[in-house]
Amino acid sequence: MSDPRLTPFSGRVAHVRLQGQIDAPAFTDGQIMRICAPLSDLLRRPDGPRDRQVLRGARVCVLDQIGDMAYVQAEADGYCGWLPHADLGADHTPTHRVRAPATHLYCAPDLKSAERATLSLNACVEIIATHGKFLQTHDGLWLPQQHLAPLTTHETDPVAVAESLIGTPYLWGGNSRAGLDCSALVQLALTACNHPCPGDSDLQERALGPALAHGTPKQRGDLLFWRGHVAWLSAPDMILHANAQTMSVAYEPLDQALSRIAPEGPVTSHIRPF
């Protein structure tokens, strides 16, 4: 059976590429739009629980709408779900991404001006003007230049990106500086380094590389997977993960983590992504 997380079918309408593969009442090419809200919850059903979140500037294909909720598939990782239609805007062309853990959108190019919203790491914006150390977005708001990078500029160390998020609160299905979970910590870090990455840990375990042989020496940048969990190795004897033990992004000695998690099952994969 197709994975509903990655299958663009709302239960009423499916993407045309699924014709001949599934029995759907209707098919559509969909409409390409962008997330215009700072952050949007991607829900399992129009009134259902959050599965993931999508950031400002993310490109999505809108396939269905019920009331004020739209069913979309995110272009970056293929994740499907429902979000408020009000969070969608026109398909503009972003020029920059947020490279800091978080930043503020200001109403004027002045650090003392009122902030209008917070954007998180990897949110994308279209810049149209510069004033001193501030850059103006296409909707007239301003961001500190120091917190942005051109879309063509990528980070090189995903663990360093993950380390910049230490202390972020744990949030199931979260994908932002306001709160994130274990798989989001991996996805955000790899995305900043221009490496595609699925949204959930089980998908990541299958997509990010072959499992290394048992006994392979561990090194910084490796990933360890348990049932329902993933962690970065920041050093051969230390992991970095968003975890429910501390309810935050935190370091944990590897031996301590292995002992603590052992009752839930063994490490299922040791992967060296890309």
Automatic annotation (TrEMBL):
- Record's protein name: NlpC/P60 family protein
Q: Which GO terms describe its biological process?
A: proteolysis
Q: Which residues form a coiled coil?
A: none
Q: Which domain of life is it from?
A: Bacteria
All copies of the NlpC/P60 domain together span 152-274
GO terms of molecular function: cysteine-type peptidase activity
Keywords for the protein's UniProt record, in alphabetical order: Hydrolase, Protease, Thiol protease
Family named by the database record? Belongs to the peptidase C40 family.
The cross-references to Pfam families, in alphabetical order and at most eight, read: NLPC_P60, SH3_16
Q: Record's InterPro entries?
A: NLP_P60_dom, Papain-like_cys_pep_sf, PG_Endopeptidase_C40, SH3_16
